[in-house]
Design goal:
Keywords: Heme, Iron, Metal-binding, Transport. InterPro entries: Globin-like_sf, Globin/Proto, Hemoglobin_trunc. Pfam families: Bac_globin. This is Globin. This protein has one domain (13-132): Globins (Globin-like, Orthogonal Bundle), CATH 1.10.490. The longest helix has 21 residues, at 112-132. By secondary structure, the chain is mainly alpha-helical. The mean pLDDT is 95. The chain is 54% helix and 0% strand. The structure holds protoporphyrin IX containing FE. Protoporphyrin IX containing FE binds at residues 39, 42, 51, 54-55, 58, 77-78, 81-82, 85, 87, 91-92, 95, 122, 125-126, 129-130.
Length: 158
């Protein structure tokens, strides 16, 4: 369809600036988490380089990049890390809003469309992580790594 506004739209990863930009985002995020009164307790001794690398692979894949996290274990591996963490609503909210601040720290594109898509994913993902972390949770055992897109607001191009 010639006038499809979603045609030839870049991936969120391309718009963000590629995998290097995602790594900056994740580093900025965990640098804040390490200083955070509600979140630092999840990572005793700090957030390791390996954890930062794995989460970067996850996000790079979600935002439209190669399947690097699927290759190291995918959804099942991610799920195993969240089971029984008992994440509270306050901790989830802090996690989500800290990611938005980290996007500023990392100088990711600040246009409303990109940031809406980013926080949309964070809101979705943190709610699933919180639900799956309940002691009595029975999450879906198998699923693909999600792929996120622009949603209702792709880049505005007059
Ligand atoms: C969008 C939401 C989230 C995403 C995309 C995400 C992603 C991930 C991934 C991919 C891993 C596994 C890393 C590996 O393979 O080694 C992981 C582990 C972990 N996540 Fe999340 N997570 C989210 C939400 C949360 C929330 C809300 C919390 C807590 C408030 C949390 C706490 C943790 C912890 C403690 C680990 C385990 C660290 C370790 O033992 O190595 N996550 N997360």
């Amino acid at each position: 369809m010639a006038d499809d506004p979603h045609e030839d739209v870049p991936t969120l990863l391309e718009w963000a600036g590629g995998a290097g930009a995602v790594r900056r985002l994740i580093d900025a995020f965990y640098d804040r988490v390490e200083r955070d009164d509600l979140l630092s307790g999840f990572f005793p001794g700090g957030v390791s380089a390996a954890h930062r690398e794995h989460v970067t692979l996850w996000w790079t894949e979600v935002l439209g990049g190669p399947d690097g996290y699927t290759a190291i274990g995918g959804y099942e591996r991610m799920l195993a890390h969240h089971l029984r963490l008992a994440i509270t609503a306050e901790q989830r909210f802090r996690f989500a809003t800290t990611m938005s601040r980290a996007a500023d720290d990392a100088a990711l594109p600040a246009d409303p469309e990109f940031r809406a898509a980013l926080v949309g994913y964070v809101e979705w993902g943190t709610r699933i992580a919180m639900d799956n972390s309940r002691p009595d949770a029975e999450p879906v055992p198998h699923a693909p790594v999600p792929r996120w897109g622009w949603g209702v607001a792709p880049p505005y191009r007059p």
